[in-house]
Protein backbone atom coordinates (compact mmCIF):
# COMPACT_ATOMS: atom_id res chain seq x y z
CA UNK A 1 0.00 0.00 0.00
CA UNK A 2 1.61 3.33 -1.03
CA UNK A 3 0.22 5.16 2.03
CA UNK A 4 1.87 2.71 4.42
CA UNK A 5 5.11 2.50 2.42
CA UNK A 6 5.53 6.28 2.53
CA UNK A 7 4.79 6.45 6.27
CA UNK A 8 7.13 3.56 7.11
CA UNK A 9 9.94 5.23 5.18
CA UNK A 10 9.20 8.62 6.80
CA UNK A 11 9.28 7.01 10.24
CA UNK A 12 12.62 5.40 9.44
CA UNK A 13 14.07 8.71 8.21
CA UNK A 14 12.83 10.34 11.43
CA UNK A 15 14.75 7.80 13.49
CA UNK A 16 11.79 5.59 14.39
CA UNK A 17 12.11 2.35 12.44
CA UNK A 18 9.02 0.15 12.61
CA UNK A 19 9.35 -3.61 12.94
CA UNK A 20 6.27 -5.61 11.92
CA UNK A 21 6.66 -8.25 14.64
CA UNK A 22 7.25 -5.64 17.36
CA UNK A 23 5.11 -2.64 16.44
CA UNK A 24 1.92 -4.28 15.11
CA UNK A 25 -0.55 -6.33 17.10
CA UNK A 26 -3.79 -7.98 15.99
CA UNK A 27 -6.31 -8.22 18.82
CA UNK A 28 -10.03 -8.54 19.49
CA UNK A 29 -11.43 -5.16 20.50
CA UNK A 30 -14.57 -3.93 22.20
CA UNK A 31 -17.21 -1.93 20.38
CA UNK A 32 -16.73 -0.75 16.84
CA UNK A 33 -13.13 0.46 17.17
CA UNK A 34 -10.98 -0.66 14.24
CA UNK A 35 -7.55 0.09 15.62
CA UNK A 36 -5.43 2.24 17.85
CA UNK A 37 -1.97 3.54 18.60
CA UNK A 38 -0.51 2.70 22.01
CA UNK A 39 1.94 5.51 22.74
CA UNK A 40 3.37 3.72 25.79
CA UNK A 41 4.64 0.83 23.64
CA UNK A 42 4.70 2.59 20.23
CA UNK A 43 2.50 -0.23 19.00
CA UNK A 44 -0.28 -0.20 16.45
CA UNK A 45 -3.24 -2.36 17.40
CA UNK A 46 -5.45 -3.73 14.62
CA UNK A 47 -8.88 -4.92 15.76
CA UNK A 48 -9.19 -8.19 13.86
CA UNK A 49 -12.81 -8.68 14.90
CA UNK A 50 -13.88 -5.31 13.47
CA UNK A 51 -11.97 -5.21 10.17
CA UNK A 52 -13.66 -7.12 7.37
CA UNK A 53 -12.02 -5.84 4.17
CA UNK A 54 -8.45 -5.28 3.00
CA UNK A 55 -9.24 -1.68 2.01
CA UNK A 56 -10.53 -0.98 5.52
CA UNK A 57 -7.42 -2.51 7.06
CA UNK A 58 -5.20 -0.40 4.79
CA UNK A 59 -6.97 2.77 5.98
CA UNK A 60 -6.67 1.73 9.65
CA UNK A 61 -2.96 0.95 9.26
CA UNK A 62 -2.40 4.30 7.53
CA UNK A 63 -4.42 6.19 10.17
CA UNK A 64 -2.44 4.61 13.00
CA UNK A 65 0.91 5.05 11.22
CA UNK A 66 0.15 8.78 11.04
CA UNK A 67 -0.22 8.73 14.83
CA UNK A 68 3.09 6.85 15.07
CA UNK A 69 4.73 9.43 12.79
CA UNK A 70 3.35 12.29 14.91
CA UNK A 71 4.55 10.51 18.06
CA UNK A 72 8.03 10.18 16.58
CA UNK A 73 8.49 13.66 15.15
CA UNK A 74 6.38 15.85 17.43
CA UNK A 75 6.57 14.08 20.79
CA UNK A 76 2.82 14.30 21.25
CA UNK A 77 1.52 14.44 24.83
CA UNK A 78 -1.32 11.98 24.20
CA UNK A 79 -2.56 11.76 27.77
CA UNK A 80 -2.46 15.29 29.16
CA UNK A 81 -2.94 17.60 26.19
CA UNK A 82 -6.21 17.09 24.33
CA UNK A 83 -5.09 19.60 21.67
CA UNK A 84 -2.12 17.37 20.80
CA UNK A 85 -4.49 14.42 20.43
CA UNK A 86 -6.90 16.56 18.37
CA UNK A 87 -4.11 17.61 16.01
CA UNK A 88 -3.00 14.06 15.36
CA UNK A 89 -6.61 12.92 14.85
CA UNK A 90 -7.18 15.75 12.36
CA UNK A 91 -4.04 14.79 10.46
CA UNK A 92 -4.96 11.09 10.49
CA UNK A 93 -8.50 11.73 9.21
CA UNK A 94 -7.20 14.15 6.58
CA UNK A 95 -4.31 12.07 5.23
CA UNK A 96 -5.36 8.43 5.67
CA UNK A 97 -8.20 8.26 3.17
CA UNK A 98 -10.86 8.20 5.90
CA UNK A 99 -12.69 11.06 4.20
CA UNK A 100 -12.50 10.13 0.53
CA UNK A 101 -15.63 10.68 -1.51
CA UNK A 102 -16.20 6.92 -1.90
CA UNK A 103 -15.93 6.30 1.84
CA UNK A 104 -18.32 9.13 2.56
CA UNK A 105 -20.83 7.90 -0.02
CA UNK A 106 -20.64 4.45 1.63
CA UNK A 107 -21.53 6.17 4.93
CA UNK A 108 -24.39 8.04 3.16
CA UNK A 109 -22.69 11.34 3.96
CA UNK A 110 -21.67 13.59 1.15
CA UNK A 111 -21.83 17.19 0.11
CA UNK A 112 -20.13 19.46 -2.31
CA UNK A 113 -18.56 22.53 -0.76
CA UNK A 114 -16.19 22.01 2.17
CA UNK A 115 -17.26 18.44 2.76
CA UNK A 116 -13.75 17.06 3.17
CA UNK A 117 -13.03 19.52 6.01
CA UNK A 118 -16.38 18.70 7.65
CA UNK A 119 -15.62 14.97 7.48
CA UNK A 120 -12.12 15.47 8.93
CA UNK A 121 -13.50 17.58 11.79
CA UNK A 122 -16.30 15.11 12.60
CA UNK A 123 -14.03 12.06 12.49
CA UNK A 124 -11.40 13.76 14.67
CA UNK A 125 -14.05 14.56 17.28
CA UNK A 126 -15.38 10.98 17.16
CA UNK A 127 -11.87 9.58 17.57
CA UNK A 128 -11.13 11.78 20.59
CA UNK A 129 -14.40 10.73 22.23
CA UNK A 130 -13.55 7.07 21.57
CA UNK A 131 -10.20 7.24 23.38
CA UNK A 132 -10.61 9.92 26.07
CA UNK A 133 -13.22 10.54 28.71
CA UNK A 134 -13.93 14.16 27.79
CA UNK A 135 -17.17 15.93 26.97
CA UNK A 136 -18.22 16.43 23.37
CA UNK A 137 -17.82 20.18 23.90
CA UNK A 138 -14.20 19.71 25.08
CA UNK A 139 -13.41 17.54 22.04
CA UNK A 140 -15.06 20.03 19.66
CA UNK A 141 -13.19 22.98 21.20
CA UNK A 142 -9.84 21.18 20.99
CA UNK A 143 -10.43 20.31 17.32
CA UNK A 144 -11.61 23.84 16.48
CA UNK A 145 -8.62 25.42 18.27
CA UNK A 146 -6.02 23.52 16.22
CA UNK A 147 -7.94 22.70 13.05
CA UNK A 148 -6.39 25.11 10.53
CA UNK A 149 -2.76 24.45 11.50
CA UNK A 150 -3.18 20.68 11.74
CA UNK A 151 -5.35 20.32 8.62
CA UNK A 152 -2.65 22.14 6.65
CA UNK A 153 0.20 20.02 8.07
CA UNK A 154 0.56 17.52 5.22
CA UNK A 155 3.81 15.86 6.32
CA UNK A 156 5.09 13.46 5.16
CA UNK A 157 2.75 13.32 2.14
CA UNK A 158 3.12 16.91 0.93
CA UNK A 159 -0.49 16.77 -0.32
CA UNK A 160 -3.81 15.27 0.69
CA UNK A 161 -3.75 11.83 -0.96
CA UNK A 162 -7.35 11.44 -2.16
CA UNK A 163 -6.58 8.17 -3.93
CA UNK A 164 -3.94 5.46 -4.26
CA UNK A 165 -2.66 7.27 -7.34
CA UNK A 166 -2.17 10.43 -5.23
CA UNK A 167 -0.44 8.36 -2.55
CA UNK A 168 1.88 6.83 -5.16
CA UNK A 169 2.79 10.32 -6.45
CA UNK A 170 3.37 11.50 -2.88
CA UNK A 171 5.60 8.48 -2.22
CA UNK A 172 7.62 9.15 -5.38
CA UNK A 173 7.97 12.82 -4.40
CA UNK A 174 9.00 11.81 -0.88
CA UNK A 175 11.72 9.51 -2.24
CA UNK A 176 13.06 12.35 -4.42
CA UNK A 177 12.88 15.13 -1.81
CA UNK A 178 16.61 15.47 -1.27
CA UNK A 179 17.68 14.41 -4.74
CA UNK A 180 18.58 17.89 -5.98
CA UNK A 181 20.23 19.19 -2.82
CA UNK A 182 22.21 16.01 -2.08
CA UNK A 183 24.93 16.94 -4.59
CA UNK A 184 25.45 20.49 -3.31
Walkthrough of the structure:
- With 184 residues, this protein is mainly alpha-helical.
- It has one domain.
- 55% of the residues lie in helices and 7% in strands.
- It has helices spanning 2-13, 20-23, 54-74, 82-95, 101-106, 115-131, 136-151, 164-175; strands at 24-27, 35-38, 43-47.
- A 3-stranded mixed β-sheet has the order 1-3-2.
- α1 (2-13) runs parallel beside α3 (54-74) and α6 (115-131) packs across α7.
- The longest helix has 21 residues, at 54-74.
- The N and C termini lie far apart (33 Å).
- The model has no long low-confidence stretch (mean pLDDT 88).
- This is Mitochondrial inner membrane protease ATP23.
- Pfam families: Peptidase_M76.
Order of helices and strands: HHEEEHHHHHH
Radius of gyration: 16 Å
What is the first-to-last residue Cα distance?
Answer: 33 Å
| Bulk shape | globular
Count of individual beta strands: 3
State the assembly state of the protein chains. single chain
What is the total domain count? 1
Going across the biggest sheet, name each strand in turn. Answer: 1-3-2
Bin the strand percentage. Answer: 5-15%
Class of secondary structure makeup: mainly alpha
Mean pLDDT: 88
Instruction: Characterize the largest beta sheet: strand count, sense, and whether it forms a barrel.
Output: 3 strands, mixed
- pLDDT < 50 runs, ≥5 residues: none
Percent helix: 55-70%
Number of helices: 8
Enzyme class: hydrolase
Protein name: Mitochondrial inner membrane protease ATP23
GO cellular component, one term: mitochondrion
Family: Belongs to the peptidase M76 family.
Amino acid sequence: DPYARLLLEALKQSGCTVFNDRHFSCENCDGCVSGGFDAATSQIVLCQNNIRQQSHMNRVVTHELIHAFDHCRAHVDWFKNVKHLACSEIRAANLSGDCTLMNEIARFKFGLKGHHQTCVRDRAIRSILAVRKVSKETAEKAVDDVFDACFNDLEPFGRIPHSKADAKRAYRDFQNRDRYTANL
